[in-house]
Amino acid sequence: MQTNERDKAIGVFDSGIGGLTVVREIMRNIPNERIIYFGDTARLPYGSKSKDTVIGFSRQIVRFLQEQDVKAIVIACNTASAFALDTLQEEIDIPIIGVVKPGAKVACEATRNGRIGVIATKGTIGSGLYGNLIRRTLPNAKVFGQPCPLFVPLVEEGWRKDPITREVAQRYLVDLKENDIDTLILGCTHYPLLRSLVGELMGPQVTLVNPAYETALQLRNLLQEQGIASQEKPEGETPYKFFVSDAVESFKDFANSILPIDIARAQKVDIESY
Amino acid sequence: MQTNERDKAIGVFDSGIGGLTVVREIMRNIPNERIIYFGDTARLPYGSKSKDTVIGFSRQIVRFLQEQDVKAIVIACNTASAFALDTLQEEIDIPIIGVVKPGAKVACEATRNGRIGVIATKGTIGSGLYGNLIRRTLPNAKVFGQPCPLFVPLVEEGWRKDPITREVAQRYLVDLKENDIDTLILGCTHYPLLRSLVGELMGPQVTLVNPAYETALQLRNLLQEQGIASQEKPEGETPYKFFVSDAVESFKDFANSILPIDIARAQKVDIESY
């Protein structure tokens, strides 16, 4: 029995749990699609690691997702998108997209003064990819990058609304404010969880861009263009499957706090064997 | 040509760079010994990961170190010591020690009121190992554990002397202060780098225990007891070799900031193949 291409799932992966903010947007915006998610919780985070290492990890995950027979892949991690998308695109023959290009595209549409900020991991900022993509569309744009390595541990500590997190955010954002940006890309999948704090500190004149949302829209367009969009709501068993490389329980707790559905189970995969 | 057992190196490993505080103590206290260090920088941190995963990673590293023909192994990581030491001890036939037992032993000797605090990763605190070991010696001791997940990212951000780090530390230490401890174990290899701040906040009546130092002393005793201590300062090429699984340059920068010698090179190893 051959599965119709349209009925196959979308593969989505991230270094851990942050990519669930992308899953949330796909669920909301393309509810007909099945999703197979892989979170590399055993080896997270990616943001402080080298390009070679991130490509190697991403390649193993893509092998796993292809074994699951997905029809397209979304890299729901800014660092992996920045480091590995081009390489992976050459290596596989199904569509694969990242979160960086959709984020850059919308920032170009949103800016009025051509001054765009990016907050992200050290890896993503160091890659310079957001700036390069933005300047392809807006050659005179000024792009200001700011790594925020404490944001992820602060979110995972549960201190999203804490005065300490506010102080850290003020420290990280001060240069961006001084540089008079009018658009700020939340360039790490955890950062939409700090959206209200960042928005308050930057002020109403700054448009915040959430690449997770933009990526879901780009995925929808891509599936339609290629004629592989699912035509109806999947029936039967749950259309969403979750795999991790470590610590299934803590993953489930976090997932259930941010997804519109409750995850009944996540399966552990030995990703190093791929 | 067979190498004499005494002339072989000590293998030391950690999830990343924190274990260099143990290397520093071995260099200072047993200067005759050669050291082969492995830092698992591609998969760090271990502190938030599960027991199974940490055992799996540690087993791969031990295989690598045995291939380097070391005469003994030091697990210079509290989380890996807590989760993997017992398992690894059964699997290999050279001596292997961790940092937790030496730290617990000295805390028992130091306390006067039997109230001992432990600050460490979630994994180490969750294992309960410090408490179990302490109560084997002092059955009536009260042990208070406090995970401090932001300490490592704050140290790695370079904010050791920052007011934000002081505020975070005050938050983490408040319960320990209220519980009237007189001894505090710095149960993660990064934490000795925050020693002066923690000491100041806890006050002079609290003895701080640095397991790195105690581990170097236990290693010295073990080598002497087993008759495998090096008898003279190693000659020829550098007696210290450093291996990592990722990002060699940033490792070298950090290593050179805390070790008494400058590292000329660190070699990258594909640890997943072990």
Task: Indicate the topology.
2 copies of one chain form a homodimer.
Chain A: E1 10-14, H1 20-29, E2 35-39, H2 51-67, E3 72-75, H3 78-91, E4 96-98, H4 100-110, E5 115-120, H5 122-127, H6 129-137, E6 142-147, H7 151-156, H8 163-178, E7 183-186, H9 195-202, E8 207-209, H10 211-225, E9 240-244, H11 248-258, E10 267-268
Parallel strand pairs in A: 1-2, 1-3, 2-9, 3-4, 5-6, 5-7, 7-8, 9-10
Task: Describe the model.
The first copy, chain A, is α/β, with parallel strands linked by helices and 274 residues long. In chain A, 45% of the residues lie in helices and 16% in strands. In chain A, strands 4-3-1-2-9-10 form a 6-stranded parallel beta sheet, sandwiched between helices. Chain A has a 4-stranded parallel beta sheet with strand order 6-5-7-8, with helices on both faces. In chain A, helix 4 crosses helix 6, helix 4 (100-110) crosses helix 10 (211-225) and helix 8 (163-178) packs across helix 9 (195-202). Chain A binds chain B through residues 41-43, 48-50, 52-53, 149-150, 153-154, 156-157, 164, 167-168, 171, 245-247, 272, and chain B through 41-43, 48-50, 52-53, 149-150, 153-154, 156-157, 164, 167-168, 171, 245-247, 272.
